[in-house]
Task: structure prediction
Amino acid sequence: MLTAPGLDDALRRGYASPRYGGAAVHGLAQNGERFSIELSGQQTARLSDPMLHAPRVHTNHALDERIITAVSQVDATSKLRLEQIASQAVAVSGITPTMIASWFGFEDTSQAKPDTQRIEADSERIALSAVLVILDPLKREMHLRRSGMPGGLETIKL
Result:
């Protein structure tokens, strides 16, 4: 999909076999068109995108009902967590990748703000290992952070 000449072709490739299980793929074109698909290993589903100018947010669980029925485990609280994070992402302006990372518990204590809200980690809701990826298409940057690793966000120019 990374070598597709356009967004429509990337989406077509996303629906073609082989399908990789347990994945969400987000496509973004230079003109702002985008798509998000979920893959179960047996089928692919395109997610709705009702707020075209809002940030896309996805977590480590299936959202589409067709994909949910194909996976064996679905955390009962995962959609609630996604809704909380998505509402924060949509409601903010002037947000930085570091602030977004703090919502997920990846805090840089030298820059943390006392009024920053985030979902508190606990052993029932947050996996022991997590990878946070933030894409900023306007700046053409990708920010990465893995739990359990020292340091802050790694920024890669695209």
Helices lie at 7-15, 65-68, 78-91, 97-103. Residues 78-91 form the longest helix (14 residues).
